[in-house]
Amino acid sequence: MSSLPHSQPRISFASLTPNNLGTVRKLNSVLFPIKYSEKFYQDILLPETEDFCKLVYYNDIPVGTICCRLETTDGITKLYLMTMGVLAPYRSRGLGSQSLKQVITAAATHLAPKIDSIYLHVQISNGAAKTFYERHGFKELAVHENYYKKLVPHDAWILERKIEGVEEQA
Amino acid sequence: MAPSGIPPKRALPSKESTLFKELLNLYESRQLKKGLKTADQILKKFPEHGETVCMKGLILTHMGRREEGIDLVKKGVRLDLTSHIVWHVFGLIQKGEKNYEEALKSYTQALKFDKENMNILRDAAHLQTQLRLFDGLVDTRHTLLKLRPNLRQNWIGLAVAYHLNGSIDEAKKVLEHYESTLKNIPDYDVEHSEVLLYHIRLLEDLGLYQEAVSLLDVNAKSRAIIDRTAIMEYRARLLTKLGEHDEAEQTWHALIEQNPDSYEYFRGYFSNRSIDLDNITKETRLKAVESLREFSSQLPRAAAPRRLALDVAVGDEFKALAEPYLFSGLDKGIPSLFADIKALYRDDEKQHAIASIVEALRERLSSQPQSNSSESEPPTTYLWTLYFLAQHYSHISDHQRALQLLDLALEHTPTLPELLMYKARVLKRLGDPFGAARSMDEARVLDLQDRFLNTKCAKYRLRAGLEEEAQEVLGLFTKKDASSPAADLEDMQSLLFLTEDADAQKRNGAYGLALKKYHAVQKVFNEVEDDQYDFHGYSLRRFTLNIYLNLIPWEDHLRSHPAYIHTAIAAAQIYIELHDDPSLATKASSSSHLSEAEKKAKKKAKKAAQKSQEEAKKAATQAASTNEDKGLEPTAPKDDDPTGTKLLEHAGALDRAWKLLSPLVTLAEDNIDAQLVIYDVAVRRSKYLQAAKALKQAKSLDADHPELHLRLVDFRQRVSSLPQIPPEPIGSVVKGAIAELIPDEVSLETYNSQYVQRHSTSGKAVLASGKVLQKLNTPIAEVESALFGALNPEVVLDIPTAIDVLELLKNVKSERAEEFRNACDVKFVSSTVFKSPKELAEMRLKAFATAAGEEEQTKPEEAS
């Protein structure tokens, strides 16, 4: 049997709405060892995070998510990457990279408020994830000890990437 | 001055006469308030003036004061029986009530006193069409044409009338005459174009193909016919019929190039080459496949020639064609691929070929390493392959294998709703309506804005008997200001909802509510039938003749729609049960025995009634002050029987059933279930000829049908126990029919045992013979042991039949019913329908995707 003549895969993104939240819940339940609170699901629907919370589609099937929230302290706004994940059969196909790029680009063009940086936690056992983020310009900032209460190991790296904002036209 | 010849009581002095004319004008322009004032002005002096009384009544009816208005109209008619106006008004009112027959009588009466009134003639023609009184219609159209020969639509009206009356030749003559009188037709005249196409269609119907082609060609060239596609379609068809095969082939070819996915064009193309795609023979197969291959390579984006080739090809050729077809569908992720090719499964060889192609693909893809190399298939192809195979195995009744594949697919990608939907379907087939409903609900919550998923979920909840929970999800998509989701769906004529809801109520034993919904379906069909009325005028006015002449026969076959047939049968079955056991009705209607559902329905109806009352009050206060035209159709009356209690009444139950069934005598001739229930009702109404006819028809459809076997015994038993045979000539006809249906010399006991011996491996036959034994007053132990025969390993017993057997055991108060239930519960491993009532109550909770009380973490812990 010869190889099938297959079409070019389509990768696309969709904003989160109350209507597709069930798909996000389903993905989170199989992707992450943690059950997220209702607060989490309320926050990702906030209008200001629309550009930073997406469903990832592969050939029109939802197979991954990326969810961030905005955090402002002392007048500086950072983007915190809460979750990013792609179903196992769809990994190593550039979906994660594309999702991350999409969010970084959205952050760079975000003006009110201007976003200073994007950061996240990675469990210290997950070297592959760390490498992945470093490839996208993230740097290790610190180790957050006992970050995970229920997971072992308990510690997590904090990774950060500065956002170079697109200069406003003079 | 009143003209002479007017009866004195109608004549008015000139002031009032002018007022009356004004009144007519005000009515025409629907200035109702002013009209009412004017009428009152006349009536002050001449309270007995019939025409004015009628007009006042008509205006009041338009203003929503219906009862008062109609009383006045009737009074007005009595006051002046020879006025065409009063009869016209009366006819309008009756037409508004959809009482077409009475309306036509009034119009006929009006025409007696004003033979040449165009409005009345036109309305009468529409009524005659609605009532299919085509002889009268031809006369009326003739009169109209004579009165106004310069109106184009009067000519067309007459031609159409002849056509409907079956005189196509006359219709043709009228058209020829009409066309010869035409002068100065503007360019691009759509109406004229339609008339010409109609003319050509008539010629085709008359078999005058040469004449038809000539007329087509002349008018296509002169651009008098402007529908280019229609020209080509007519031309291709006519040339084929004429035997001009080369020219026809070119035209079909051109049509296919225009729309390469029209199966009709391909059928036409091949029929021109004497190949009937639906009946391929050894001789035609090769040619057809070859030519379809050619089309496929010429038209790379067209699906139709590729799919048709699968119908036609066999053996290795089929395999060679099926493989790329299936691969391409799986690669593109076409959800309906299995539904598309399922028809090929009638051929065992093709079924096996398809299964082995897709199985081989699955094996290859499952062993493929998960990598992103560009040669490897996208993971979605594997997913769609699993989905396809699950459907394949469920279709060939290997439901467990289907479930395994679906679980594998869900592990791979849990977010594809199709997988959960199909899992629901497999669980349903395995007899687990609760698990099925849950799976459908899981699919629904993946995408709440998908109405299809929503409707499916509601349907599965109804199938699981969860009536209220079904309404909850339906309510997410219905109008928020409707009194209930069900009321809105009834307004929207949702046959799916009405049918499923009624069936659910019937299964739950709430017969009143079930009948309400079954009658609601009937109402929908009445409305569709009424809706055609407007087209009798519209289609002639706008010259949309060809489609109109397709509409009329379609309307005549309206009630052959599956939803009508199903609901008519189901409702009649309830009526038969009520007739045979009147205590069912009293049980159901005494309020102490009201089921939960009925109580709720009562409450809801009360609320709705209150709402409508308030609205009516509001409307009444407004009516006096506004000009708003409420039309002549009566508003829906208040529902004074929300639980359907009146429908349960013994008296008239069979008549109500017959009213539903009578259209099926001819429209469902080939439906054995319909014929059997027609028998059931006819025989109980002592219509023995009708009963015999239905049985004969059923026997011609399937002589060994188990339910027919039961009826044959029933018929002989009933007729032989009649105190006296029906009067001649019916008596001997019935006797002859029985002799023909069931051999005279054998006893019914022997007849029954012979039947079950002939069909010893059929569960349905076992059930039917059990019913017969009970009918013949056999000791209960014998009935029981016969019915338990259904559990023998060599007997093919499906779940619905097993449920019926259990029901029968319960009905005859068998002590072994519980034993049978337990045995079925063991036999049908994955089913839940044979669980005990207590277990079932717990099962209900299984039917929902989101279970309450899930633990929640307060602080989110993020994982990346």
TrEMBL record, chain A:
Organism whose genome encodes this protein: Steccherinum ochraceum
Q: Any idea which UniProt keywords this protein has?
A: Acyltransferase, Transferase
- Provide the Gene Ontology terms for cellular component: NatA complex
What is the protein's given name? N-acetyltransferase domain-containing protein
List the GO molecular function terms.
Answer: acyltransferase activity, transferring groups other than amino-acyl groups
In the record, biological process GO terms are: mitotic sister chromatid cohesion
Chain ranges passing through the membrane: none
Record bears the keyword Thylakoid: no
UniProtKB/TrEMBL annotation, chain B:
Q: Where is the composition biased (Basic residues)?
A: 600-609
Q: Where is the composition biased (Basic and acidic residues)?
A: 627-646
Entry keyword set: Repeat, TPR repeat
The UniProt entry, under Gene3D superfamilies, shows: 1.25.40.1010, 1.25.40.1040
Q: Which InterPro entries does this chain map to?
A: NatA_aux_su, TPR-like_helical_dom_sf, TPR_rpt
PROSITE patterns, alphabetically? TPR
Q: Name one Pfam family in it.
A: TPR_8
Mapped TPR repeat ranges: 84-117
Q: Which SMART domains match?
A: TPR
Segments for region (Disordered): 586-646
Can you supply one Gene Ontology CC term for this chain's record? NatA complex
Query: Is Mitochondrion tagged as a keyword?
Result: no
User: Coiled-coil ranges per the record?
Assistant: none
Q: Under which name does UniProt file this protein?
A: N-alpha-acetyltransferase 15, NatA auxiliary subunit
The organism of origin for this protein = Steccherinum ochraceum
